[in-house]
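Table S2 (text version). Query chain:
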Amino acid sequence: MASPGSGFWSFGSEDGSGDPENPGTARAWCQVAQKFTGGIGNKLCALLYGDAEKPAESDGRPSGPSLGKAVWARDQEAPAVAPRGEVNYAFMHATDLLPACNGERPTLAFLQDVMDILLQYVVKSFDRSTKVIDFHYPNELLQEYNWELADQPQNLEEILTNCRTTLKYAIKTGHPRYFNQLSTGLDMVGLAADWLTSTANTNMFTYEIAPVFVLLEYVTLKKMREIIGWSGGSGDGIFSPGGAISNMYAMLIARFKAFPEVKEKGMAAVPRLIAFTSEHSHFSLKKGAAALGIGTDSVILIKCDERGKMIPSDLERRILEAKQKGFVPFLVSATAGTTVYGAFDPLLAIADICKKYNIWMHVDAAWGGGLLVSRKHKWKLSGVERANSVTWNPHKMMGVPLQCSALLVREEGLMQRCNQMHASYLFQQDKHYDLSYDTGDKALQCGRHVDVFKLWLMWRAKGTTGFEAQIDKCLELAEYLYNIIKNREGYEMVFDGKPQHTNVCFWYVPPSLRTLEDNEERMSRLSKVAPVIKARMMEYGTTMVSYQPLGDKVNFFRMVISNPAATHQDIDFLIEEIERLGQDL
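Corresponding structure-token output:
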């Protein structure tokens, strides 16, 4: 393969610099893209560079200048898309597509037009001149469009319109100025992997129907366990439908470890069980306790310090209280990256307490787990290797498309013993391959979506160092924001000191409140500021950032950065926009 900066990769300049803003670079890129993607390459060039930059043909084949027209694949025996004029979607329905007889051409034309819609949306998602959101109130959207399901089918023209309408009002979560949630960004390799996963359309319960995906899950989970620090990547794990379910898995397995008989006999056969987590932890711990019959009253919330970290001495005090009442402490869930403050609990001290009282230690690192791949920031999770289980959501800081959440367990085989039901129609014991790759019986679900491929493919594309770079960049941007507003007029920090994660929590204080005494009236008025600014952000469509109250603190902004597309200029824009929208309050 040619080396970067020479030969195949040298676009747009004689010295091989490959300047992406050089028109020659654009044309050369388009020529190569056209070779490998047929009409899609031309369409991307038209979207990115305009009609003037579409490449000349280099191999003598017709180019198919737009999606929906002839596509010339490298293999000329592949079915070509029918010319757009020959496909009148107004008179076609889904029954005209594959597997219909002679359905290849209309199917390819239809899917190319769907791809056209998707690619335009992808390009617009990174265009800062476009809105993050085209906000309409629910009743407006319900009245403007007919969303109801009917007995008779719509034609394919209407189906394409449905696709355009849905994306028109979708939130551009990949937009560089979307900061509303912990999961942001739009990774191109991850997106491609998700398309492939949907095309394969298989289930993760046995090797026989998902051979490659099952192996990739095995490889990827092992790599994640190695990064946690478990010797040789030993242990077990599974990809689940989100961090809340991963946390519930941990609670389920911890209970089974302490009382295996609960699987057959239920909660009536075990004593009162108590779980402990911080008062800043995710609500999923209580949801899991409710779902498992343990009860929300059996989840004890441990006090946190002013930065949102669990106080170990209070944890030990509450454990002793529970034991004195005859209850059985069975789980401590520490948090590595709390949802609001981005705090990291002191895992080493918590691990010592769990060892002392023989309690299962779980670490909810759904938000903070990505920092484990950063040599600069992984120290914040020191002690995670002593946990019995860890939740880690690559769809957050690692930027993998939703959903992608892993539950990692240190003890191999425990998850299988906890959940297996030996369904003979799936998990036959006389199959002709290694049955350890039939992973479905250790899951609560039967049908399980393929969530691993997008993470695996992104990891192959970036390497661990690529993930490290984008995570370090997001943390640097958070520090940049903090350094700007910590002493800026009109801003007050919710807690003192540099944030540990990308969470930056602050109040914007409009001019009318800056001279008021710090009393109940001021707090009441301040509590209304963030909601109004957020509403104005959404109506203008310029940016989105979250707010919430917490404890005795009234509504404040919680800025989080997980999108590697964001820049210092986007942070500057956010500050200016908050001030523009809130100065009259």
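Notes on Table S2: Residues 1-39, 47-77 have pLDDT under 50 and may be disordered. Residues 150 and 580 are 46 Å apart (CA to CA).
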